[in-house]
Amino acid sequence: MKILVIGGGMAGLTYAIVAAKNGYDVTVAERNPRLGKKISMTGNGKCNIGNANVNASCYNKSAIVSNVLNKISVDEYVKFLYSCGIVIYADNEGRMYPLSDSANGVVDCLREQLEKYGGKTVCGVEASNCRKVGDRYEVRIGGGKYIFDKVVLACGSRSQSLDVNPYTVVSQNMFTPLVPSLTPVKVFNMDGVLNGIRVKADVTLLDGALTLGKQSGEVLFKDYGLSGICIFNLSSIIARKQVQRKNGNYIFSVDLVPSMSQWDLGELLYTRIKAGYERSKLFYGILHNKVAEIVLKRAGGDVSDVSKLSETAKNLQFEFYKLLDYSMSQVTSGGIDDRYIDTDTLSLPDGIVALGEVLNVDGICGGNNLYFAAASALYTFSETERATAYKKL
Ligand SMILES: Cc1cc2nc3c(=O)[nH]c(=O)nc-3n(C[C@H](O)[C@H](O)[C@H](O)COP(=O)(O)OP(=O)(O)OC[C@H]3O[C@@H](n4cnc5c(N)ncnc54)[C@H](O)[C@@H]3O)c2cc1C
């Protein structure tokens, strides 16, 4: 069987390697000059390749996710990676990395496996205009038209690949709206003086009085708004709503002193005022000086109002304006609508198989997106085919 895989990212390479190890005639068409460009960018160059604690709550609601996770366990994924020469360790939060800590090294391993088992690659060419002719498919690749028995679409998304056009193979009508996710957010009421400061905080995303999500971790203040992993994760909640064409009055509430209750913080500030602390020194040792300046400004002029000061430090509010665009986002919310996908085979009505980020599946940070890209590819093979692939090193 002659198979064409469109896209040489994590999903496409995983599919092609398992197919090649099972003796299929497989070709990967990649529009970039080299395979795995996005893999090379992941995890700040270290490649956070999966997560030992992966579960359906790490993703948007999708029947595809539950099916894939039920069939392809983390252990099985690790087995696949091992068979490709990628040995894994997990940090204390379950984030999995290659022992080499090298995303480029992961691409080397995958490319090497594909070549070793006879998988072919054509790079620097775009595949488009896929058309079913009888039982086969005609696809335009670069300047020519070619015939394949099977086509696998693993073309990913526009996140940090701005000129990818996911509609060249599958009609736009089959897609939900696409929205950049895992991205910084612009806010209306940023205090420019905070630009560049990082704090450890608890951040709650509100829509009016409704709590939509909560994350703990580092927040990076930018002149336009907020960044950092916990902001990225909360951005996915907004992005998924936008995919459903829902908007809201979103507020990011930042608790700058998560280790103290509001009451205890108020008591401490009260003690300091009694001890004669100057206004500008009230938050010494608790907050970065510039952050303290903003808390004092937003709490109003009355320094003796400790309950207002502690409330502001525990609930510094930023009004959401917009998600930053694809040039800053790590993943795209939305994709081929689940309605068009056969959840057992991940195929479209005309038989094209769709894998990875081009599907309407997106996960939060921590290795969940690479995991899904690879697991969705493994999912489409039989148990015997997968076992055959894992035995070959
Ligand atoms: C900066 C950054 C950091 C990230 N860090 C992490 C991380 O640490 N952990 C994690 O789990 N996820 C991370 N992600 C997300 C993760 O990289 C993606 O979700 C994942 O790579 C998607 O894999 P994919 O194979 O579905 O798509 P992609 O990796 O996007 O691959 C699709 C490929 O198809 C090619 N293509 C598209 N259209 C065509 C066409 N018509 N013809 C030929 N080729 C085509 C593209 O050039 C691309 O190479 C990060 C993303 C970014 C941008």
Q: How is this structure best described in words?
A:
By secondary structure, the chain is an alpha+beta fold. It folds into two domains: 2-179 and 329-391, FAD/NAD(P)-binding domain; 184-323, no CATH class. It has helices at residues 10-21, 37-41, 63-71, 74-83, 103-116, 229-243, 262-274, 289-298, 306-314, 368-379, 383-391, and strands spanning 2-6, 25-30, 50-51, 88-90, 95-98, 120-123, 127-133, 136-141, 144-148, 150-153, 179-181, 185-187, 198-207, 210-221, 225-227, 250-255, 316-323, 331-333, 353-354. A six-stranded antiparallel beta barrel has the order 12-15-14-13-16-17. The longest helix is centred in the middle third of the chain and has 15 residues, at 229-243. It binds flavin-adenine dinucleotide.
What keywords describe this structure?
393 residues, alpha+beta, FAD/NAD(P)-binding domain, 11 helices, 30% helix, 24% strand, elongated, binds flavin-adenine dinucleotide
Strand order of the largest sheet: 12-15-14-13-16-17
Count of individual beta strands = 19
Structural class: alpha+beta
Highest-level CATH class of the largest domain: Alpha Beta
Number of domains: 2
Task: Give the termini distance in whole angstroms.
Answer: 23 Å
Encode the helix/strand succession as letters.
EHEHEHHEEHEEEEEEEEEEHEHHHEEEHH
Helix content: 25-40%
What name does CATH use for the topology of the largest domain? FAD/NAD(P)-binding domain
Sequence stretches where pLDDT stays below 50 over 5 or more residues: none
The fraction of residues in strands falls at: 15-25%
